[in-house]
Each structure stands twice: as structure tokens, then as C-alpha cells.
């Protein structure tokens, strides 16, 4: 059974810092990996999708990498802003049968 | 208008009541999913559907049933609600093997 772990569970940094969120998964036979953002009491917003054949994806200040063989992904956030404060979720697709989620990293950016 | 909509957004019900949560999408995707989110447990897959004739159980389907009325509509039912079904419920859609898009969620409380 696939298991997804996110480290750290919580992170608080000053505004302007670059930061890295980590995600690991136990079964490397994934189809894709997706990073989401969730604001308190809200739905999930898709940030980046990395297909299994890809190594990284970029969107604005966000960069996600994937090392399928080692079962790891990182989400890099450059020049963090208070508006980046949210919970970030990593999820992997083993096939078409839905996503397996990590429990998230709760991020606070201090003004 | 939102691509994935869920109704109701909030619902309070009593133990033993039957309740239906509805999901509609305008993205034209064939695949639809229902997840629940619990504090400390993350998101878990309840049911998924590849098309109107294909319904599959997810990790935690006990106590739930679904109906795929059309390509765009996927409903989740709790036949006899119990308090441990109190959670945030999300519907999602995707095309084959692709990015999943989530609805805004339904907050369900079972008293």
C-alpha cells in the first residue's frame, strides 16, 4: 500500500526566504505526483503536476522536482510572501484509482 | 463559474438520517472521485468512477454509496449517517491519468 510522508509537518519562516518542502512515497511505481495548496476551511488548489517521466515542473516562484527511483519530491518556494501561508499537500497517483495524499506541511510566512 | 461544484457546502444532520452530497463538473472529464478529509488523517479516497457505467470502491467505502447520473454528475450518499462520518468531503475530476481538480468541499456534521 502506498504511503506518502511530508516533512516538516509545520514550518514558520520570515518573509523573503526561500524554502523547501519535502515529500516521500514508498512505492516508486507512480503515474504522476501533484502538489496542492489548501487554505483553512477551503478546497484544494492544484499547484504543479509532475508526470512520472518528468524531473521537474515550474510555475512562477514554485518549482517541484521528482526523483521517482528514490521516492522523493520537493517543492521549492522562492522569495516567500505572507500570502504563501497555507497547508501544502503532496499526492501521488499509482494509476487511475485516485490519489494517495500526505498529511501536509502547514506553512506560515511571517511578515 | 467554478469548474467543479458541490452542494450543499455545509450540512448538519442527525445520526441515522440519509444524506446525499452532489457534485457537478463542467470540465468534460470522464473520471470523478470522492474523498474525505479528517484532521490528522489527511484525504482518503471513498469512491471513484471512470464513466457512468464504471464505479469503484476506494480505501474507505464502507457506509457510503455513489451514483454517476451522467458524465458531469457524481453523487455520494450516506445511507444511515453516523457521527464518525463527520468530515470535509471533496469531489474531484480528471481526464485519463492527468491533473485532478477539486471542488470547494462540503462540511458535514453528524450529531
Give a brief rundown of this model:
The complex is a heterodimer of chains A (111) and B (111). Chain A is 0% helix and 58% strand. Chain A is mostly beta strands and 111 residues long.
Question: Main traits of this protein?
Answer:
heterodimer; A: 111 residues; mainly beta; 6-stranded mixed beta sheet; 5-stranded antiparallel beta sheet; globular; B: 111 residues; 7-stranded mixed beta sheet; 4-stranded antiparallel beta sheet; 11 strands
Please characterize this protein's 3D structure.
- The complex is a heterodimer of chains A (111) and B (111).
- Chain A is mostly beta strands.
- Helix content of chain A is 0%, strand content 58%.
- Chain A contains no helices and 11 strands.
- In chain A, strands 2, 4, 5, 9, 10 and 11 form a 6-stranded mixed beta sheet that branches. A 5-stranded antiparallel beta sheet of chain A has the order 1-3-8-7-6, with no helix packed on it.
- By secondary structure, chain B is mostly beta strands.
- Chain B is 0% helix and 59% strand.
- In chain B, the strands form 2 sheets. In chain B, strands 2, 4, 5, 6, 9, 10 and 11 form a 7-stranded mixed beta sheet that branches.
- In chain B, strand 7 (64-70) and strand 8 (73-78) form a beta hairpin.
- The N and C termini of chain B lie far apart (33 Å).
- Chain A binds chain B through residues 31-32, 34, 36, 41-46, 49, 89, 91, 93, 96-104, and chain B through 31, 33, 35, 40-45, 48, 50, 56, 58, 90, 92, 96-105, 107.
Work out the radius of gyration of chain A.
13 Å
Number of helices of chain B: 0
Oligomer description: heterodimer
For the largest interface, the chains and their residue counts are:
A-B, 23 and 26 residues
Counting helices, strands and paired strands, the structural category of chain A is mainly beta
* Number of extended strands of chain A: 11
Radius of gyration of chain B: 13 Å
| Order of SSEs of chain B | EEEEEEEEEEE
Q: Mean of residue pLDDT of chain A? A: 94
Note the main sheet of chain A.
6 strands, mixed
The average pLDDT score of chain B comes to 94
The helix/strand series of chain A, from N terminus to C terminus, equals: EEEEEEEEEEE
The coarse silhouette of chain A is: globular
Distance between the termini of chain B: 33 Å
- Total helices of chain A: the number is 0
User: Percent helix among the residues of chain B?
Assistant: under 10%
The count of DSSP E runs of length 2 or more, i.e. the number of strands of chain B, is 11
